[in-house]
Amino acid sequence: MTESSLNPPIARREHKETVLHGITLTDDYAWLREKDSPEVTAFLNAENAYAEAVTADLAPLRDQLYEEMLSHIKQTDESVPYREGDWWYYVRTEEGKQYAILCRNRGSVASPDGPEEIILDGNQLAEGLPFFAIGASDISDNGRWLAYTVDTTGFRQYTLRIKDLDTGETLVGEVERVGSVTWAADNASLFYSVEDEEQKRQFQLFRHTLQTPHSDDVLVYQDDDERFNIGAGRTRDGKFLVIESASHITSECLVLPADQPTGKWFVISPREDEHEYSVDHRNGYWYIRTNDRGRNFRLVTAPVNAPAKENWVEQIPHRDSVMLEDVDLFAKFFVACEREDGLPRLRMWKFQNDTPEANPAGEIAFPEPAYNASPGINRIFETTKFRYGYQSLVTPGSVFEYDLETRESKLLKQQEVPGGFDRTLYASERIHAKAPDGVEVPISLVYRKDTRKPGFDPLYVYGYGSYGYSLPLGFNSNRLSLLDRGVVIAYAHIRGGGDLGKPWHDAGKMLVKLNTFTDFIAAVEHLTANGYGDPARVAIEGGSAGGLLMGAVTNLRPNLFRVVLSHVPFVDVMNTMLDASLPLTVPEYEEWGDPNDETYFKYMLSYSPYDNLKAAGYPAMLVKTSLNDSQVMYWEPAKYVAKLRTLKTDSNPLLLVTNMEAGHGGASGRYDYLKEIAFDFAFLLRELGIV
Predict the structure, then answer these.
(1) Which residues have a catalytic role annotated?
(2) Name one GO biological process term (predicted).
(3) Which domains are assigned to the chain?
């Protein structure tokens, strides 16, 4: 059944005007913000029913895709155990069950061969709930007390619980709106952060003492700057507690000896606008990753009792072409986690003695042109071994252990992909497209080699391009359902992301945000011009800020794309950024700009997807959202679709699908989520003419 044979829901108009900087913004669908209104619920349900009717003929394909993707998943599986304290910890899944099971066993120091103890069974905790997710968790040093948080709505509002792992009992008393959790070294003091009820900003840190009511919990820190969120943790050696308070461009760290939970916190370096840093500790020295002398960060050290800037000694200098993303610190060595030419690097440094002096000790080599590599779970400080994860667009997720002494990596486990997967059938490439200003934009590609028809293949391009986030080039077995049908898949590493370091982010935000959109368009044009896809069969996808990308490029070049998948899209830029009461708005002035400033207002208005919709032909579009999304409110995509329905001059499908029981990430159960992917893929394949 086609859209033209059905009548789509038409939202009523209720005219609203906002005048700012001499410009009138009109919004006929602001009433859709009334979440509890029966009329709003009826509209969303009507859109869901309409989407189901328009795609009813795709039901067999959806079922086929679901079974196909399920066949590539080892449903009963177990992660590689890691050692922490006296225990080995791991996560396992069971066939037919939606959620993971967190487990541990004592075993021996060398082997996790003891009897299993289930710490948390997500399936039991989620029983009877339409949505369930575990957030933060931490286990006390003695292995007895588990602090964890749960979300049962999808709004990413987490409730703190404490469990006695000796008895299996969950203690009486809960705390709402909790973010980070971390235990002190006394096995009795728990620190947890709490968010503001309206803005969802983590701004307070409390100390709870076991066997006392939560009403007696002590507020130890509060950040009143609305740009900042706080979080708490511990240094890898366990000797210090750390509060990190950070905005998008500024950070500040406070520390406290972990064995003195009632002591006084002290600042490493007072906050300065546009100075970001993080801190770890080893053998009486702070190791500080800082961007005080360059956007791509450097590494410095300072004595524990003298952390001020004048005492900083450089260990790794700032480099214009290399981003120092993180430092994993151990007793005998550290790992510099870097990004160069858009690809991650893991470079080893070995300490010479008890001082901070270290020498380069090799680099872990990776064999493919496009890949993802990152530190694994490493909880042992006194070690000469380092676990890391590796995967690529064609290589399943793998856990390795690198031995600093032999400089060799040992594969501990590679994700098993059943269902006949043969990685030799697939190839990946790394190419570059030239943006309008001459900048080279990296693109990562994967395709099936034996079905390639250069110039005639359907093409799928994914993009994000915000917050300095680097697109991870991981393996996803769901992708096989597209690749095996001849789709070429591309990932555009556009400006605004962090793929080429902080300057790459800077070049695609604030008053140069348009670079993000023109980079993406250039990537698509380059791909089709060079035989990687049929210009008439281009699908694009993005979510959240990537949904902003989808809306912006579709307004700019609607004829360039055949089909658009837009997930939880940030498309109502002006109305959201003018409402300081919404979660994220004030902190994100540092990403998009403050529209109360006329310069930023006019620039943001130039690309805001909702405000730039026009009478034109648009691609086929599937727009997805969730009623309980706390990051991009459901009404943004709902308003966008309602307005576009009155303007589009084509007969292509325009569908709005709302998950009425989830949040920003969609369904929480792994099987339910797979069904959502099957819906997306079926729509995409039909619009690309593959079915």
Answers:
(1) 544, 629, 664
(2) proteolysis
(3) 3-70+420-687 (3.40.50.1820), 129-274 (2.130.10.120)
